[in-house]
Amino acid sequence: MELCSFLTLDSFITDPLTHDFMRKALLMSSLVAAVCGFLSSYLTLKGWALMGDAVSHSVMPGVVVAYALGLPFSLGAFIFGVGSVALIGFIKQKSRVKEDTVIGLVFTGFFALGIVLVSKIKSNIDLHSILFGSPLGISLSDVKQTIFISLLVVILLSIFRKDLMLYCFDPRHAKTVGINVFFLHYLLLTCLSLAAVVGLQSVGIILVVAMLITPGATAYLLTDKFDNMTVISVLSAIISSLIGIYVSFWFDLETGGSIVLAQTFIFLFAFLFAPRYGIFKLKKLFAGYK
Amino acid sequence: METINYQNFRIEAENICVDYNGKVALYDANLRLKPGQICGLVGMNGAGKTTFFNALTGFVNISKGKIRINGESVRSAQKDQTIAYVPQNEGIDSQFPISVWDVVMMGRYGSMNIFRSPRESDVQAVKDAIERVDLTDHLSTPIGNLSGGQRKRTFLARAIAQRASILLLDEPFAGVDIRTEKLISELFIQFKNEGKTILLSTHDMIHVREFCDLVLLINKTVVAYGETSEVFTPENITTTFGGISPDFLFGPES
């Protein structure tokens, strides 16, 4: 990495594209970001940030067991993701412990189980890549699986886009007019588990929750229209992924962390300068100069 | 669909019980309402008003008893869009990024295809409903930018667009301006003439006297039910509110 090579923006962008692994990483991470960004609008509006954290951590033992048994890791992740939510609901109902405590203890329990299993199973699972992501070292079978899951989630979300919006906004009305709220609840959970699985390849299990909430939160500050929120969320997620990967390439930084950090900076920018909801309300500033 | 048989009841609830994990919220509650009747649902916080609404809409399951809506099950009432629920202002997220138009369109979702793509008739229904609540100037306004009264009218428009024959209104007069209150009372008269049945919960005793033909006083179960002039007595109200004197509730004249 020579300093002179990024004197021009052109080579800053094109040089990494000469590497096969970089092209793959950029494409895959953009896809994953788009999926997580799409879902992110729903999760932030539903108030499921903690749930996203719980599910994304809880998939860990599922991923490990699936790898060990030679099954698709998405299957294991899905079972443990949905299972953790069912367990949270069960413990909450049957005990006097408060919900956020139950969520915290269930997901850390699952996560710990995953770590213990990794140390015991001693297969070719790389703990570091599960925890912190490895978009640069993604294998061909992972690519296929990621594309399949991503398409599945995008199709499901697209079909039930409006129903899910209604479910987040006013589930009681949904139920009253005969819309299957139970189905929508589990649909959203399913998409959450699947998105967590593809997201963890990009940024790892620990940070995947950022992929699921930060783009939505950023978009929420920038618009009052749901459709725009989804578009902004997806775009900001993709842009963050591209920035994160480029920056990590040129400065030799951890890729997952760079992607999430880029998302956080975009959020901070919106937080400060969003036209209507930012601290400095850009619209008003400009109006003052007229 | 709009053939009204005035012999039949719109709502029939017989001895219904609702419990949440063994904790009883409502027991042995009965209610019968005919088309064109307006009934007030009065009780303390936690007396089971919302639970009653939830049971009628099927949002919670009843553990005992029977509910018939237009002579059919709650499930088929849901399929037929028979019941519209107008939530309390506090019951919804006012910061949700959604416009007046989109909220009212949600009233049509139940009768749309799986993608919820509006037909011309849906667009017309939404337009008409918004006009009836006098919000035509706010079609694309996000609900977060509306006043409390305007927001209440948005949800009323959703119920109108749904073309429901039964309206359940949770505290329709709480936190609304005079203009909205007047508009709501005019709508009530129109709904009555259209043969719709209205069940509304309220804390305001004056509204009960003004609008309600019938009143249902509840405190986990039915304390009293009947014509407002007969049932809405200081004694019954005192029992409903756990021994608090009605003087305290309406002032000494009552």
Automatic annotation (TrEMBL), chain A:
- Could you list the residue ranges that cross the membrane? 25-45, 65-90, 102-123, 143-160, 181-198, 204-222, 229-251, 257-274
The entry's keywords: Membrane, Transmembrane, Transmembrane helix, Transport
GO biological-process terms attached to the record: cellular response to iron ion; response to zinc ion; transmembrane transport
Q: Which Gene3D superfamilies match?
A: ABC transporter involved in vitamin B12 uptake, BtuC
Domain of life the protein comes from: Bacteria
Could you tell me which Pfam families the record lists for this protein? ABC-3 (PF00950)
The cellular location(s) given in this protein's UniProt record come to: Cell membrane; Membrane
Is this entry keyworded Lipid metabolism?
Answer: no
Tell me a GO cellular component: ATP-binding cassette (ABC) transporter complex
Protein topology in the membrane:
Multi-pass membrane protein
Q: Which CDD domains does the UniProt entry name for this protein?
A: TM_ABC_iron-siderophores_like (cd06550)
Q: Does the keyword Transport apply?
A: yes
- Give the signal peptide as a residue range, or say none if absent: none
Belongs to which family?
Answer: Belongs to the ABC-3 integral membrane protein family.
Protein name in the entry: ABC transporter component
Native species of this protein? Prochlorococcus marinus str. MIT 9314
